[in-house]
Amino acid sequence: MRFGPVRLADAEGALLGHSVKIGTMKLSKGHRLSADDVAALAEADVTEVIVARLESDDLPEDEAAARIAAAIAPDHLRFSRATTGRVNVYATAAGLFVANRAVVDRLNRIDPAITLACLADHVAVDAGDMVATIKIIPLAVPQALVERAQALLRADRAFEVKPFTPRRAALVATELPSLKSQVMDKTRAVLTARLLQSGSRLDSEQRVAHTTEAVAAAISDAADSHDLIIVFGASAVADPDDVIPAAIRRAGGVVEHVGMPVDPGNLLVLGRLGEIPVLGAPGCARSPRENGFDWILDRLIAGEWPSKADITGLGVGGLLKEIPTRPQPREGSAGKRPGPVGIVVLAAGQASRMGPDGRHKLLAEFGGMPLVRRSVETAIAAAPGRVIVVTGHREAEIRAALAGLQTTFVSNPDYRSGMASSLIAGLSALDAGAGGMLVMLADMPGVTSAHLAKLIAAFETESGRAVVRAVAGGQRGNPVILPKETFHAVRQLVGDVGARHIVERCGLPVIDVELGAAARLDLDTPEAIVAAGGLLRD
C-alpha cells in the first residue's frame, strides 16, 4: 500500500486517508473516491488529498479484519460486522473467558498492522459481554500477512468462552461458640448469590461441629445428591492436616492443594470426593467481594480442574483489593470523610429504539423544554458545580439544547460501542477528590432534584462506603451512586453494559433508596414519550 498526498486529479479509486468535510459534504476515512467525489471536491477548490493506494496483493481493512475473525473457532462467540477495520467479539453464553497468551502474542507480533486485544485470562463473563476486538491499523494490509494470522488462529485457539455448567451445591458449615449464627446466615446468603451468577444453586446446608469426624460425615452425606461441596470452617485452616483437609481424607477423598498465592483467598483448600469437587472456603469468601475463592469456583463450574501449577501460578495479579470485613486490614482507613459526589449524566446513546425516522428522545419536549435539558437542570439543582454530561450521538444538537448551563461536557467518540464507554468517559472527567459518582440516565423525566438529594444523603450517611441505588417498589432502578472504591472496576468495563455486575460483586453494602415509579421510568420508544406527556421533535 502507498500512503500519502496526491493531486486530486489522480485520486479516483484511492481510499481517503483522512475524513474530508466541506459544507454539507462529508467523506469518511477509508472511503473509496469515485469520479463524482473527485468532481465535487474540485468544485470546492480542493487540489490535493491524502490517500491510500492499494497494491494488487493488498486487502482493505474491513476485509482483512473479517477474514482474521473468521479463522477463530466460533463456539459461544458472536462476531460483529467489520467496520473501520474492526471486528468486535462477544460472548453468547455466561462462562469463563480463557485466553492463550502465547497465541495472542504471536498474532500481535506478525506485523504492527494486525492487532488482537482481549480480556484477561480466566475472567467470568455474561452473555453479550465484549471479550475481544480485532483491529487493522492501516487502511489495507498485504494478503500474505492476513493469511499468516489465519493460519495461526486455525492451528491454535487464541481464546474461548467455556460456558458454566450449573451445579447443585451443598454447604457444610462448622460451628464454634465464637462464631455468631448471624454470620453463618449471611455466609449462606452470599454463597447462594455467588452460585446464582453461574446458574448454580445451593441445595442444602448442614451445620456441624468443628471436628474432623463431623465434617467428614457431612461431606459423605452431601456427596449422595450434590455435584459440588463447599465447606466453611468456623476457624481458618492453619495446616494441611487441619480439620477441613483431614475431613476430606476421612470421607475417602483426596486433598489436591492447600493454600494459594491470592490475597484475600490464601487459605483455600481444594479436594475431591471421587469426581465431586470439595472446596474448603477461605474466610474472606463470607464477603461477596471478589477473592481467590471466586477464581477457583469459576474454573470448576466452567468444567476445568485447576492443577497445582494453575493455582501456584496465580501470584501475579493475586494481590486483590482489601475487603471491608477483613479482621486485620493491611492499612487502616477509618475516619476519612468521603469526597463530594459528582453527577454523570449519560446523554451519548443512539436511541436505537426510537425508530427509523431519526427523532431523538433526548430532544423531545416536556413542558416546552428538551428532556435532556430538564434532566441536566435537575442534576445541577442537586449538585451545583459537580455535573458532567457525556455526549456522543447527535452531539452538537444535544449540547445546543444545554446551552448556558453550568456543566462539564465530555465527548465519547466510541458511543456506538455501548454504555461502558460513556461511564468511563464520565469517570475520567470526575474531580480527583470525588468520593462517589452518581450515574444518571438523561431519559428519566420522573427523577427530581429532591430524589438525587435523597440518594446523596444516603451515601453520605454511609460515609461513602456503600453503593446507593434507587428502587421502585423494591425493584432496582436508576440512578445509582458508585463509591470511589469501585472506580477501578468501572474503568475495566467494555461493551454495552452498565455497572450492575460491579454493584453485585464489589463486596460493599448496597443501600436501596425508594423513589417510587420515577426510578424505573426511562423513555426508550416514541410511544413511551407520548404516554409520559412528551412532545416529539425531529
Automatic annotation (TrEMBL):
Database matches in SUPFAM superfamilies: Molybdenum cofactor biosynthesis proteins, Nucleotide-diphospho-sugar transferases
Domain of life: Bacteria
CDD domains: GT_2_like_f (cd04182), MoeA_like (cd03522)
Upper lineage: Bacteria, Pseudomonadati, Pseudomonadota, Alphaproteobacteria, Hyphomicrobiales
Keywords: Magnesium, Transferase
Source organism of the structure: Sinorhizobium kummerowiae
Cleavable signal peptide: none
The keyword RNA-binding is assigned to this record: no
Name under which the protein is recorded: NTP transferase domain-containing protein
Alphabetical list of Pfam families matching this protein: MoCF_biosynth, NTP_transf_3
GO MF assignments: transferase activity
Keyword Transit peptide (UniProt): no
Location of the MoaB/Mog domain: 170-466
InterPro entries: Bifunc_Mopterin-bd (IPR012184), MoaB/Mog-like_dom_sf (IPR036425), MoaB/Mog_dom (IPR001453), MobA-like_NTP_Trfase (IPR025877), Nucleotide-diphossugar_trans (IPR029044)
